Amino acid sequence: MKLSLVDLGIILFYFVLTLAFGFWISRRASVNVRSYFLGGNSIPWYFLGLSNASGMFDISGTMWTVTILFVYGLKSAWIPWLWPVWNQVFVFVFLAVWLRRSGVLTGAQWITFRFGDGAGGRLSHIIVTVFAIISVFGFIAYFFEGIGKFAAVFFPWELGFSIGPWMITSEQAYALILIGITTVYTIKGGMWSVVGTEVLQLVIMTVSCVVIGVIAWNQVRPEQIDQVVPDGWRNLFFQWKLDLDWSGTLNSVNDKIASDGFGWFGFLVVMMVFKGIFASLAGPVPSYDMQRVLSTRTSSEAAKMSALTILVLYFPRYLMVAGLGLLALAYLVPELAAMGAAIDFETVLPLAIERFVPAGFKGLLLAGLLAAFMGTFAAFINAAPAYLVNDLYRKYIRPDAPEKTYVRYSYWSSVLLVVIGLGFGFFAGSINTLTVWITSALYGGYAAANVLKWIWWRFNGFGYFGGMLGGLIAATAVPLLFPQTISIYLFPLILGISFLGCFLGVWLSPAEDEEVLKTFYKQTRPWGFWGPIKEKVMQEDPAFAPNPDFGRDMFNVAIGIVWQMTQVVMPIYLLLRDVRGLTVSFCLFLLTSFLLKRFWYDRLKNNPD
Question: What was the pLDDT predicted at 519?
Fold first, then answer.
């Protein structure tokens, strides 16, 4: 497909604007590493919230979400619980406050705050740094796979070439170019550049989402959808068996459902909830989301920033997802059916844009989706070097180097991480494969140790190291031992191995230094099993008030999950013209918003920072 000159001009203008803005704002970034990675803790929380939302609006994830809506209908609203998407609810309700009270620079540095600087603390510090770097490689491969497929559909040039025996496809060439542009402005500007450009990108993406929603509203009628989708496609709720039969309409969809392993949908949701509770209690993984929390000025602002991320992200994103999915169902089914078994469902999004978005708007939309990719990629590339520079080089090799040296080494660390991550990307299979591996296997190895670190006083650095090491080994080995089993169903085994590593580390080593535990408990104020430490803190400081909010926090989490879910389904009901579904979900949105205002937001003013 050839883009018009207007569309190409809009996209080119976007690239120039982004690079210029990133370089202009970068002058504030290079004072020291705190300024480079956290913006000097001076960026307003609402900008960080907008930036975080932009970082989560990634193009690979959007392509995947359009695909699952096309295949699973309203039930697709549950499938992102694989991550789980509602971990952000746990973060804004209480974990952001706990995390920000530490005042540290990275998630790995937080480990030293929790376990001290003894042998166990150092081992824990190293293992979480290794996890952060491995996860970055996985996500770079994920982005590489998605942006290449997307760009090759639209841009008119065939860029494939060979280097000796290796053939670089056109998809891969486009991915390399876009990743290169993003890496340049991210390295140059640090956190200030990333946040500034991401706020700009979120504005472009939101306008693009509205454009797609309007096009779908004008071109798709509910009767067109009803003619092609199977019974149950419009139903949000489910039984144990999925029972969606695409036979006679698009037979290859049945094969996809079977290969996804989502046929027993009720059991899948049970597994996602089980995994989601542990993964969410573990807190944000050491990536851009955690970095945004640590960048806020106070713990109350960290909580508000995380809630704003949900509020500005889900409705516009799912307006785009629903619009593109419904356009594909209404007009592309015959074309997709003609592809037979060769159909690539991950191209549904670019095909829908190619067919139904007019010139001019197409350039705006593509700029928005490229902004989604660049925003997410930039967020990872800004967060990751901190673990190499601050948590390895500064801590263990050269702790007294000038700040400019650390910033300069951060530039080179970014380049190194991108190059290695791209190597993984060349061997990736598909977006769905990477999504399931990252969410179910890799994060499965993260959950156990990172739940216990919050809630159990006796959990020590050796236990954390054992749990993380066992989890990483299990996340790598278990899927190889059970290659025909979907990763989400392997989560309990991976989690169990990780818990075993945790408890072995605890039983075989002494508790952490009491002073370290008292400092952590008094400063963080978590609830959980802290009895002995709580008693000692209260003896030393009778004015200290333990955290009594477990019940209220769990209530707010339950309300927050419903609140988030309404923002997912409302745009779908809107474009389907389902008045009953839209009315019920909107009323639930208002009710849950009121409850969160009453029992969460109004209590933040009493939060001791």
Answer: 93
